[in-house]
Design a protein that fits this description.
The structure is a single chain. It contains nine helices and 13 strands. It is of the alpha+beta class and 361 residues long. Helix content is 42%, strand content 22%. The longest helix has 43 residues.
Length: 361
């Protein structure tokens, strides 16, 4: 193989000129080779037959080969054997494409092979240029071992934190269920009907919060709750808690797909708990039939509109819900303020409560 260099004898094996084969590379300037040697990345050029015609010092350090050992050798020398066919297809596709440069491995990780046979992850870009009727391909390769290792450490750390958060939500849910059970046990010792109702209502409120933590525990996301699924679970629990037959009082839902963070989900869930409970307790006296409607819609501006309504007897005409002594309605007002929601109440045919709030998680 003819090597480029100054007159008066062949260059030393480690010289920049030897890394640039003048018989193969149209641009064979020794000064160009020295400039390329300044790069930390590996810069490797091959001809149309995929023979190596340029191998800078960065490539020597990265792959472990001296330049004179690889000049004229096929590029397969630097690739894992199992990836050779895929690499050839990539080069063929790139050669026929109208683009002159692209990033390699856009859909999968690039792997390279050192002289000792060890594989390593790499980042690479490839370009092509036509010189004197022939195509030369040049790859700039960066060792991605440290980046991949750092990413793996970060992923492991995130997995550990996710597991910890899941465990926290699970334990909070269990603790809330214990509180709910204690309230239930205590209520059995109470003979006063009104006091027992108060214990049941407290149980339902605690359960509504426990259900949120259970939803987060089971969710793929630890920060957002599938709120339509939560509403259906909560409503089913309340119908069961109040011993309401689904044949007598029908539940109708119209729920957009919406995810809420815990900060918004807790007050919103408690509001829904109070409104459904009020409907089941008061809207259908004497065994009358009817329906409870729950609607959740999200506007294009990110605002959510929640409607809980029934077609029952409605509120009494003299009830001022903004100044009521009812704990449930006072809670709704207080929680709506916490949620930053606007509230409207209508009581013509039944009762309808409308809330609008920012749905950002």
């Amino acid at each position: 193989m003819k090597q480029g260099g100054s007159s008066g004898g062949p260059p030393d094996a480690g010289s920049s000129a030897q890394r640039l084969d003048a018989s193969m590379l149209p641009i064979s300037s020794e000064s160009l080779a020295k400039i390329l040697d300044l790069a930390d990345d590996a810069i490797i050029s091959v001809d149309q037959e995929q023979r190596i015609i340029l191998f800078n010092q960065g490539a020597e350090r990265m792959f472990g080969y001296p330049a004179d050992a690889v000049m004229g050798q096929p590029l397969d020398l630097l690739l894992p054997e199992r990836l050779l066919e895929a690499h050839r297809r990539h080069i063929t596709s790139f050669a026929a494409s109208p683009v002159n440069a692209r990033r390699m491995g856009e859909r999968q990780e690039i792997r390279a092979r050192r002289k000792d046979g060890r594989e390593f992850p790499a980042e690479a870009s490839i370009s092509k240029v036509e010189v004197n009727g022939t195509t030369m391909f040049t790859a700039i390769v960066r060792d991605a071992t440290e980046r991949v290792l750092a990413e793996e450490i970060l992923k492991n750390s995130l997995r550990e934190k996710e597991a910890l958060l899941k465990e926290i939500h699970h334990r909070v849910k269990n603790n809330l269920q214990v509180v709910s059970s204690l309230l239930g046990l205590q209520s059995r010792t109470v003979t006063n009907h009104e006091l027992r109702k108060m214990f049941q209502e407290s149980q339902d409120r605690v359960h509504s919060m426990a259900l949120l933590h259970e939803s987060l525990y089971q969710s793929q996301s630890l920060s957002q709750i599938d709120f339509p699924a939560y509403i259906r679970q909560l409503a089913a629990h309340l119908f069961q808690s109040y011993g309401v037959s689904a044949e007598r009082i029908h539940l109708r839902t119209n729920l957009d797909k919406l995810y809420l963070g815990l900060e918004a989900a807790v007050p919103c869930g408690l509001i829904i708990n109070e409104l459904i409970s009020n409907s089941l307790k008061y809207a259908f006296p004497d065994g009358r039939e009817g329906e409870v409607r729950i609607s959740l819609r999200q506007s294009s501006d990110g605002t959510a509109q929640l409607v809980v309504a029934d077609n029952g007897v409605g509120l009494k005409a003299d009830v001022d819900w903004t100044n009521t002594k009812s704990l449930g309605l006072r809670l709704v007002r207080s929680l709506a303020e916490q949620l930053g929601a606007t509230v409207e109440l209508h009581s013509n045919t039944g009762t309808e409560v409308q809330l609008a709030f920012a749905a950002a998680a």
